[in-house]
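Hi everyone, sorry if this is the wrong subforum. Our group has a chain we'd like a structural model of before ordering constructs, and none of us has done structure prediction before. Sequence below.
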Amino acid sequence: MACLRMVVRLAGPSRFRSTATLTALQQLKVQPSQLLRRCHPVVCCSTSAPSNDITVQYRHGRPVLALPLPSRQEKCLFFLRPMLTTVSDLIQDIRTEDSGVSSASVFTTDGVRVASGTPMDTLLNKDFQLRINGVVYNVHSVQREPLTGERVTSMEDVKSAVHMLHTALQLPEHHLMKEKELQQKLDILKQELMPLEQMKAQVDLRAERSSSRALWVGLALLSVQGGALAWLTWWVYSWDVMEPVTYFITYSTSIGVYAYYVLTKQDYVYPDAKDRQFLHYFYKGARRQQFNVRKYNRLKDELSSVEEDLRRLRNPNRLRLPVEQIQPSAE
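Answer:
Right subforum, don't worry. Here is the predicted structure as tokens:
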């Protein structure tokens, strides 16, 4: 009726003087709903609660969770890393993104709470529930195709590569600290070896002189022996007398060479015999100079080990290779 009165006022009293017009107004009274629709537009509102079902989607090969945040009243995309993160990481990301989240936990569809250390790769295999501030969100995981044996092997290689890359990116400080520790140990070993190296140089020099002197003495004795045999053959006696003498001298030399092999288990080769004589004079001089050969060898082994560790640490392309494979490749 209020709408009818408003129409009459707008149209003016002169337009409703005829009987036909009054009859039309009577018909309008009989059908007020049509007049109300024309006067006031109808706005439809729904009081049903929004759906709490969320589906995990895959974008660029990575699972994405579109989760509504309680404080912002809007959805936020969380890109998940199934092979590197756990349930605890997902909850921490949600709390970091929205400070209004007071409680967040993950449950199975049966209502069993999921541990915080559960990998996301295991969680995404089935549907689960995400409870944030008392609101339950039903998360539906996309069914993935079963993996064949060849693909499983490939996935294991990818996981290993990703894990190594994650370790290299997350542990640079450990890498630098280890390198600094090895460098300090290397400096300490060099300082301990410095006086021993000086003493060893003196012992080496004396041993080298003694072994060289022995070689020259041997050459002199052979020269004297040859001259004596020649003098006895041509000036004192004849060849008939000296022939048996030279035979027994040669036979005695053969006995001496064979005795050398029996004692040393090595052939009588001049370079090896010279090195053996050098070691004899070296240890003799070390005892005289009180040079600790065992300590020197131990420090040299430790120094070589530290240098090898530093070489492997500074070459990241070969970190996975064992020492047995690195040494042949370096040679």
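For your construct planning: Confidence is low (pLDDT under 50) at residues 13-50, 318-326. The chain has eleven helices and seven strands.
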